[in-house]
Design a protein that fits this description.
With 131 residues, the protein is of the alpha+beta class. Helices cover 27% and strands 28% of the residues.
């Protein structure tokens, strides 16, 4: 099957050797995605809700570039630096996935690549209509 890679254009992708997303057949995997803007600056410093929203928006953009959408997501993984923020992060997740209701996990980690990053989200999607 053909492999379609999606890049966000950040320096980290080539340096670390990964893609923002990869699509093979109907399956799309989106790498851990944080709350960064088009220039790589962190959005929502100190605000886990805002960071979760921006991370999901970035996931959505990657999915769209792989000819998929949030409606195709079957699994998310949420990594947080403070599990006490679960409600605010969960609220953001529910705003985007409340009707879709993918399988999900939320796990506290000791830190992310930048100390100002509070949330990182991965997503797996299966595009309808393809086997």
């Amino acid at each position: 099957m053909e492999r379609h890679r999606v890049s966000s254009g950040t320096e980290w992708e080539s340096r670390v050797g990964y893609s923002r997303a990869v699509r093979v057949g109907p399956h799309v995997r989106v790498s851990g995605t944080t709350a960064t803007d088009e220039d790589g600056a962190i959005v929502g410093r100190g605000d886990p809700y805002r960071q979760a929203v921006r991370a999901i928006e970035n996931v959505e953009a990657a999915l769209e570039r792989a000819d998929a959408s949030l409606a195709d997501v079957v699994r998310t993984r949420i990594f947080v630096t403070d599990i006490d923020d679960w409600e605010r992060i969960g609220d953001a997740h529910a705003e985007y996935f409340g009707e879709i209701r993918p399988a999900t996990s939320m796990v506290e980690v000791s830190r992310l690549v930048d100390p100002d990053m509070l949330v990182e989200i991965e997503a797996d999607a299966i595009v309808d209509g393809e086997d």
